[in-house]
Write a structure and sequence with these properties.
With 180 residues, the protein is of the alpha/beta class. The chain has 6 helices and 7 strands. Helix content is 36%, strand content 23%. Helix 1 packs across helix 2 and helix 1 runs antiparallel to helix 4.
């Protein structure tokens, strides 16, 4: 793991956050907790062939996953201008050649299917699966950072999913390995 890049990301985020209010994380420790939250799934997911992060915001989890997997193409899909500008700046500053920032809503974005589609705090599971349908194949996996609502969200999805829910602290990581 590239700790220098994570430290520099923390500095840049705190600096930009003072002006642009990108995240609720206002101290280095709070940013570090968000980084740890973003990185934890790398302990149990398969290394993806490519990543699409929906609604990246201030960089969690997409930008952090891009740092963890420097040789994996990572698309950060963020519709809000100030957040997209921040993400582009950080990718350039940290020389993350694997990162592409798209300032669009995911439903308006077209590309080849992705190996992994991730998201944190965007919308419910069913809606995320529907919004990204055009960007997945049978091989696509999903990694959603969820709270307690994950259990009722899974019940609301029509198909039978092949998934795991890994619980850590107040977080539920929903890892969908296949759509039936």
């Amino acid at each position: 793991m590239n700790n220098e890049k994570l430290e520099r990301f923390t500095e840049l985020l705190l600096e930009w956050n003072k002006i642009h209010n990108l995240t609720g994380a206002k101290t280095p420790l709070e940013v570090e907790k968000n980084i740890e939250d973003s990185l934890f799934p790398t302990t149990f997911i398969e290394k993806p062939s490519s990543i699409l992060d929906v609604g990246t915001g201030a960089g969690f989890p997409g930008l952090i996953l891009a740092i963890a997997y420097p040789d994996v193409k990572t698309v950060l899909c963020e519709p809000r201008q100030k957040r997209a500008s921040f993400l582009k700046y950080v990718a350039m500053e940290l020389e993350l050649d694997n990162v592409v920032v798209i300032k669009k809503r995911v439903e308006d974005f077209s590309d080849e299917p992705f190996g992994l589609i991730s998201s944190r705090a965007v919308t419910d599971t069913k809606m995320l699966l529907e919004l990204t349908e055009h960007l997945q194949t049978d091989a696509t996996r999903y990694l959603f950072y969820k709270g307690e609502q994950v259990f009722s969200e899974i019940e609301a999805v029509d198909s039978s999913l092949d998934y795991d829910i890994i619980e850590k602290d107040q977080r539920n990581y929903l890892y969908i390995k296949g759509l039936a």
